Amino acid sequence: MVIRASPATRVRGVRRGARDQRWPRILWWAVLSAGLMPALWLGARTAGAFGGLGVNPIETLLTDSGTFSIIFLLLALSVTPLRRLTGLAPILRLRRMLGLLAFGYATAHFLIWLGVDLFFDWQLIIEDLTTRPFVMVGFAAWMILLLLAATSTRGAMTLLKRNWTRLHRLVYLAGILGVVHIVWLTRADYREASLYALALATLLAMRLFWALRTPRKIRGEPARNGAG
Amino acid sequence: MLIHRHVRSEPRSSEITPREVYLARRDFMRGGLALGAGLLLPGLAQARSGNGLSFSPGPFSTDEPKTPWEDVTTYNNFYELGTGKSDPSRNADMLRTEPWSVVVDGACANPGRYALEDFLKPWALEERIYRLRCVEGWSMVIPWVGFELNQVLQQAEPTGSARYVAFETILDPENLPGQRRPVLQWPYTEGLRLDEAMHPLTILAVGLYGEELPNQNGAPLRLVVPWKYGFKSIKSIVRISLAEEEPPTAWNQAQPNEYGFYSNVNPDVAHPRWSQRTERRIGEFRRRRTEMFNGYGDEVADLYAGMDLKKHF
Questions:
Q1: Contact residues for A34 (Cβ-Cβ < 8 A; gap 6+)
Q2: CB contact, 8 Å: B25 with chain A?
Q3: CATH at residue B121
Q4: Which residues does chain B have within 8 Å of residue A132's beta carbon, measured at their own beta carbons?
Q5: Is residue B21 part of a domain?
Q6: Cβ B116 vs Cβ B100: under 8 Å
Q7: Partners of B243 in the beta sheet?
Q8: Are the CB atoms for A49 and A40 separated by under 8 Å?
Q9: Does B49 map to a domain?
Q10: Which of B34, B273, B278 sits opposite A124 (nearest CB)?
Q11: Contact B75 A56 (CB under 8 A)
């Protein structure tokens, strides 16, 4: 895979020594490897290692894949605030990868639900999709991630120009729908769900705070558009 | 232990192979044979039975394959010991079952407070192999050991105005971690209409797989009402009260629109958030259709004749 350095880094890297350029690359690979670990771990447990998947294996696959999806989505949403707080520009390159990992785990989650849990029982699937709010919001969140993943390429960015940024603000909605999905399927113990809700609220509040403080002209946005 | 019904001439399983060794070996095998392969070897898991309690076979037992002991004892909803499925077995030691006493009171002529041994002494134990359907959409087949609740109620001599039976779980927040957080109203309470409680299917269980109930399954004494969702089968009972009015019940208090007083297994009445049409029998791959009254309709449908079960869910 090609790592695309921003022009600034590339210029610096060439002259001022390769050492500066190396650590973002190492970081990128390290984060990707870490991000694939849960998939390997789930796969290994499915094959029987690490004590297997427990008494209700399909439920375990379903909840674990969903959990990893929301975690990577929250991580993807942390990149921009983290860069802003630390000034570490190279971590921005992790954002797309973390988003794609969230999409990957969400897709696994969706397919396990469709093909393993409900075993392509279309009557049940359609009933769930049309009458169960927690299923509907989860499905909507996945559809958004699908759209964002499909337009995550450099080509799509070039093609959509300024609209790309607008389109990808849908990730905030995906995060909200994902958390609502978890809240709505919780029976009584809201500890885990509140953790996700708190993390998401913090990340969105930071953005809102910065957006309100920054004059529109500097953000290069037409005045009639709302804050992102 | 509290319940001495072990036949002396028979060796206990713990005398043959140390329990830890035997369970550890099984865990190892389970790990290696997870998912499908495990299903082919139900006999292994069922080898453990018949050594703790003496009992006779009872009526109403299903001949469906039993859910293995390990699954029945490690996948539990017992929020007093934690809200995760494996929390109750992990925290089982936190439930103190000795000493244990049971209060029978309320609208009855013969109330009493009994030490557990005295409470159990009059009743012959039977095995009842029942289906258990959890409101979350999974099910098991469990060989309970217990006795019919109606014997206890008859002994208490309900007054003419008694129409309900209320049950209460032990309240011990110092030892039970779940009771230190307000997930549900503690102590856990449940209730039945008197005719439901008198029904011969309704039992008080003291064992499963022929052994004393493990703590995570509601030791030392629990209710089993097989045609209702699992949460009606209250665990670790300390009080049984005859009542004139419908008693408050824990899940109904927490979410009245989601958990009704009756909570009969009913595929046509969805939980407001998820469908109840199907269930996953633990150990099976495909979901199966959920049956009305969990398949006990022939026995219990009469209890609800003329009632709108969509309204009285």
A1: none
A2: no
A3: 3.90.420.10
A4: 273-275
A5: no
A6: yes
A7: B164
A8: no
A9: no
A10: B278
A11: yes
In a domain, B311, yes or no: no
Taking CB atoms and an 8 Å limit, are A52 and B35 in contact across chains? yes
Count of domains for chain B: 1
Selected residues 40-99 of chain A with any CB under 8 Å from a CB in chain B? 45-59
Instruction: Report pLDDT digits (tens) over A59-79.
Output: 999 999 999 999 999 999 999
Per-residue model confidence as pLDDT tens digits over B220-278: 999 999 999 999 999 999 999 999 999 999 999 999 999 999 999 999 999 999 999 99
The tokens describing B79, both together, are 């929020």
Place of tokens 């399909």: A58
pLDDT at B142 over 50: yes
**C-alpha R_g of chain B:** 19
Residue B11 maps to a domain: no
Task: Check B274 against A134: CB less than 8 A apart.
Answer: yes
Question: Inter-chain contact B31–A50, Cβ cutoff 8 Å?
Answer: yes
Q: Which of B75, B255, B275 to mutate to test the interface with A (most CBs of A within 10 A)?
A: B275
Are B192 and B225 in contact, with CB atoms under 8 Å apart? yes
What 8-state DSSP symbol labels residue B50?
S
Q: Which residues of A103-123 are buried (b: 16+ CB within 10 A; e: fewer)?
A: bbbbbbbbebbeeebbeebee
